[in-house]
Amino acid sequence: MSQLPPCPQCNSAYAYEDGSQLVCPECGHEWQPGATVEAGEGDKVIRDAAGNQLQDGDTVTVIKDLKVKGSSLVVKIGTKVKGIRLVDGDHDIDCKIDGFGAMKLKSEFVKKV
């Protein structure tokens, strides 16, 4: 039986296969086997909700209705965001959304197009 790699997020040894992806039962992280990118010194790999690696300039879509803090506006599911910029911090995507202006998003709520 082949040895499965540990979870890249929490290093749990209990990862299991689910179709073509690997799943961690402890933290719920899902990733593609063999697609783990080793981050070099100071490099941080940011992935979308599906596990795809994001880069500056990518186009993404929102996968969940997101309330805009401080207003009654809502960014609807399926909203396309072009030309993202990756930054450090809790909200790791800087972008401009038509009708909303400049905004920060978490990568867990977007999917690469």
TrEMBL record:
- Domain (Protein YjdM N-terminal) spans 3-32
Annotated signal sequence range: none
A Pfam family the protein falls into: Zn_Ribbon_YjdM
Q: Which residues form the Protein YjdM C-terminal domain?
A: 46-113
The family assignment reads: Belongs to the YjdM family.
What name is this protein filed under? Alkylphosphonate utilization protein
Give the species this sequence originates from: Rheinheimera riviphila
